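Lab meeting prep.
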Amino acid sequence: MLEVSGLYDGSAAGPVDGLDLVVVGAASRDITPDDPRGWRLGGAASYASLAAARLGLRVGCVMGVDEAAAEAEELGVLEAAGVLVCRVPLDRGPVFENIERDGHRRQRWLSASDAVPVAALPTEWRGVRGWLLGPVAGELREEWAEVAATRDDACVAIGWQGLLREFAADGWVERVDPAPSPLLKASGLVVASVHDVAPGANLSDLRAFAPRATVVLTAGDRGGLVMRDTNFFRYPAIGAPQVADPTGAGDVFLAALMAVWLHSGELATPRALRFAAAAGSCAVEGAGLGGVPSPAQVNERIRETGTTSQPRGSNR
């Protein structure tokens, strides 16, 4: 039985002299009545940065923030976990209202997002091996693909959701058909929910847009589908005893896959997918970033479900 407690013990948190992973995206503000501000900080960049840091990676985050998000207390949570946060001021940042009905989510948008410019990337972060691009509102332009793929051995992942949506004039976030993108072309790992993909989309077409990538389509409590080269296989879900807030679970899943890839070289293998599924299942048990799990929580969930064979990597 392989053990992961050493790999994911969070020992990389704190001041660092180098980074394993750069996460890029805009912080969203998600409307909620449960917070005195009327919103809580969200977005793929927020969730993925925190999850990756807690799983032992040295993380820098280039995060677009509007005026309100720039003062969010959640940014202190990221920094306490060891994330180096590079705040990029935006006149407009994404603001969403997430509406859950019968297990399905619809989103209304209250604000779109300005672009996060490549010029905001700290010079000393260029050349990092690991990149996680997490657009939520099309805020990452195609030039980020060239920056992320600078190294021949670069590990580039993208959360596809932000490229599969448009902000409709009636205030709803609508799904759009997948389209070619330099960001997809540069990626080695692409993750999206089946709920992000427009009905009737051809899986072969999806794969063609990311020719170098392993593509993972998550399906919540139904597990998911992995597309690699011409091969397709399914992986099982790991359930959660209770669901408090599903927001961000897919981003935690992606960050966990990235952690395994960078630590051990396993790219969305069955063992890596089990670990990521366990991390995602833990994430839904808390509200907002409060649900992002520790390594101990993920390992305990794996033990509870009996899926104990996990990848080994170096302990930094």
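Slide two material, second protein:
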Amino acid sequence: MFPKLLLVSNQDLNTRGALKSLSADELGKLSSLAQISTALSRADGGFFEVANTLLDKLLETLGAERFAVLLHPPNESQSLFRSQGPDGVTADPFPFSTTVVNSVKESGEPLVTLDAMDDQRLSTSVSIQLTGARSVMCVPIKGTGLLYVDNRLSTGIFREAELSLLTILADLFSAALERVRNLERLEAAYAALRASQEETVTRLAAAADWRDTDTAQHINRVGEYCAHLAHWAGCSQEYVEEIRMASKMHDVGKLGVPDAILLKPGRFNEEEFKTMKRHTTMGGKILEGSSSPLLQMAHRIALSHHEHYDGSGYPEGLKGEEIPLEGRITSICDAFDAMCSKRVYKEAYPMDKVFGIIRAELGRQFDPRLGQLFIEHRDEVEQIREQFSKP
């Protein structure tokens, strides 16, 4: 018999009521570990944030010298360590008792020894002799590895109550990790869905764009101009990313415009212009009714990117802030790129002329605040144009 070595199952911990007769010191530790549990529940930056939170809080609350989260193969090289020494806390790896660790791995049960050097089962262990470990605890972390704690200076500081608490904590840690993994899986699924949605948007927008321009880079340039202008205007990052994609759909309604009109090399007559203007409402019809926030924004842009700030635009003659913000942004960016680009009916305008026209149209065709921001960031605008004009 080895009375100083306790192998305790989870069932034993529950049935023996280890938590029912805690001393004031043990109750203090329980309170501290409850705080650790709260900290773990708030850590959501991934495995290493949760694991580092655990070790840092243990270091603050448990009277021990060294702590480790030892990961199962093939991730053992990513195991995390904390040591309390005369020069402060370090995160450097330290030698631990492989005898204790292997015992817990094989049994799947928590382990505590009051004095490893005086324990007949452990005292002859080479790893115990090399590490000089005296008080040791080790508990399994479901599906992850082990939580290992030791102290080389004192004996008897870990008993059944501390092991109970550490076991509970390992379970909480495991639950926190599972929560993080679930979040990561959801984020990955959302990212994949978003990528698929964006690909569909880009392909549909390109189908319309290829009929009207020399290059499908037009939609990419408009997307970048819109994203940057939204950022300069102080919009949220979420809005910036949304308009980057949604604005690419501004001319999707041109799929319904006959080539004879769309590709006409001269000016439109009155009837042709009426037909051409219908690309806004046709785009709205194509995009309406979606539950996707991205397509809802694209719907608003398709309908409003030819509205003018003074109310002289189409299709509804909206005025000022009656025009959705994304419509006012896209109006500037689309007009800028159209003026800079060669079309079947015109040559590209010089850059000075383009910015001069935008300045002249502030408060008339264009939102004056947004148009001024666009002008003030001319250098960045021109860099975007150059970047997205390459084949």
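Talking points for slide two:
The chain has two domains: 5-183, 210-387.
Residues 1-6, 8-19 have pLDDT under 50 and may be disordered.
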